[in-house]
């Protein structure tokens, strides 16, 4: 594993992603979701909304890093709120 | 009567694919993420730098220019290849030996490896020994793809159009063959013009294959490397240096692994976004039908 040059933040990031994926799979098995339409202009499943949320979060983080000097944790908090809104009403 | 068995055993059959993808894509991608937050001098000397490389990459004007060139290039070749491919497909014979001969002739450019395509056009465009270069000189055009950026662009675009229009043409040809004859009979009864047949029968039936063709061509042209590298080497200056070539220069030429990893992640996110937009469009189009 040393050749992969692991760091603590990246390890936590991937553990987070893995936990989200396992959690979503369990949630899907326990209560299968139905495609629905929220404020997004297309019908989405839970997994679609997660993907849209993760992808947009990546771009929000990039925008934060590029155009502000603010702490990256602020972007993470903003993305967490965005993810909740998207998963609930998207 | 047979009853249908439902369980999750089929997932075990997917395991080999998952393992291969893990080794060929997921683990390398994770490594790139790890590199992107570190300054790496050698495998044992590395320092955590946080988001520094991302900031540098996002504000790098050379990369902005390469990204702009990349979008201009991808949209230019799509704007040429899609209409041209449809025209070629409409003109191809539908029956008899002519159809087979046309299919083989049209498919030939697709069979040629990328680096050979670059070499072919490198020779083809030379004024002293190449047919295209000599022809341009003959008609009095001062054409030199090695020193003039406009000529280099013209050659790179022409090369891609020559190489990949056949793909669009073949996809459209198969789409056209799938239209039942009754549609044309109905059009003849209504005395529809050739344009009306194309606009109201052929084009709507081609929509799906065209979206797939455009997706393939966009992705492929967005990641283009070999042909321009062989033909112009990214020059003159950096006029034909596209994203992947900038990335290779940074990663292998300068051995800046950290910034190159950050750059490839941004590149990956852009491709992922465009793929998702195309995929969603295709799926929604099929749902509407």
UniProtKB/TrEMBL annotation, chain A:
Transmembrane segments: 6-30, 72-89
Sorted UniProt keywords: Membrane, Transmembrane, Transmembrane helix
Keyword Transmembrane carried by entry: yes
Name the record gives this protein: DUF2160 domain-containing protein
Annotated organism of origin: Marinomonas colpomeniae
UniProtKB/TrEMBL annotation, chain B:
Species annotation: Marinomonas colpomeniae
InterPro entries from the UniProt entry: MetI-like, MetI-like_sf, Sugar_ABC_transporter
Spans through the membrane: 12-37, 71-92, 98-117, 152-173, 206-225, 260-279
Lineage: Bacteria, Pseudomonadati, Pseudomonadota, Gammaproteobacteria, Oceanospirillales
The family this protein is said to belong to: Belongs to the binding-protein-dependent transport system permease family.
Domain of life: Bacteria
ABC transmembrane type-1 domain sequence ranges: 67-278
UniProt membrane topology term: Multi-pass membrane protein
Protein name (record): Sugar ABC transporter permease
PROSITE patterns: ABC_TM1
Subcellular location as annotated: Cell membrane
Swiss-Prot/TrEMBL keywords: Membrane, Transmembrane, Transmembrane helix, Transport
């Amino acid at each position: 594993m040393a050749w992969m040059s692991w760091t603590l933040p990246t390890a936590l990031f991937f553990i987070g992603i893995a936990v989200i994926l396992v959690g979503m799979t369990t949630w899907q098995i326990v209560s299968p979701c139905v495609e629905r339409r929220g404020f997004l202009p297309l019908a989405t499943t839970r997994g679609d909304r997660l993907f849209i949320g993760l992808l947009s979060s990546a771009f929000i983080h990039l925008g934060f890093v590029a155009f502000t000097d603010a702490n990256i944790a602020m972007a993470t908090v903003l993305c967490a709120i965005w993810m909740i809104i998207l998963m609930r009403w998207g | 009567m047979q009853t249908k068995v439902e369980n999750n055993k089929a997932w075990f059959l997917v395991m080999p694919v998952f393992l291969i993808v893990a080794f060929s894509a997921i683990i390398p991608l994770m490594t790139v993420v790890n590199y992107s937050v570190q300054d790496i001098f050698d495998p044992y000397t590395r320092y955590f730098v946080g988001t520094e490389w991302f900031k540098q990459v996002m504000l790098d004007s050379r990369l902005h220019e390469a990204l702009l060139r990349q979008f201009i290039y991808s949209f230019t070749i799509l704007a040429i290849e899609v209409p041209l491919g449809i025209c070629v497909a409409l003109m191809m014979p539908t029956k008899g030996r002519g159809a087979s001969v046309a299919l083989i002739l049209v498919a030939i450019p697709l069979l040629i490896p990328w680096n050979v395509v670059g070499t072919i056009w490198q020779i083809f465009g030379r004024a002293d020994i190449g047919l295209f270069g000599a022809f341009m000189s003959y008609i009095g055009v001062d054409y030199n793809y090695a020193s003039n950026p406009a000529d280099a662009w013209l050659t790179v675009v022409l090369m891609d159009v020559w190489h990949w229009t056949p793909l669009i043409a073949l996809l459209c040809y198969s789409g056209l063959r799938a239209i039942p004859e009754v549609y044309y009979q109905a059009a003849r009864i209504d005395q529809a013009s050739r344009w009306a047949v194309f606009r109201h029968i052929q084009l709507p039936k081609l929509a799906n294959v065209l979206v797939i063709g455009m997706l393939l061509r966009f992705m492929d042209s967005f990641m283009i490397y070999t042909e321009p590298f062989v033909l112009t080497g990214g020059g003159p200056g950096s006029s034909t240096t596209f994203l992947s070539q900038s990335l290779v220069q940074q990663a292998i030429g300068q051995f800046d692994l950290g910034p190159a990893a950050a750059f490839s992640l941004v590149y990956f996110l852009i491709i992922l976004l465009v793929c998702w937009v195309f995929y969603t469009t295709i799926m929604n189009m099929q749902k509407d039908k």
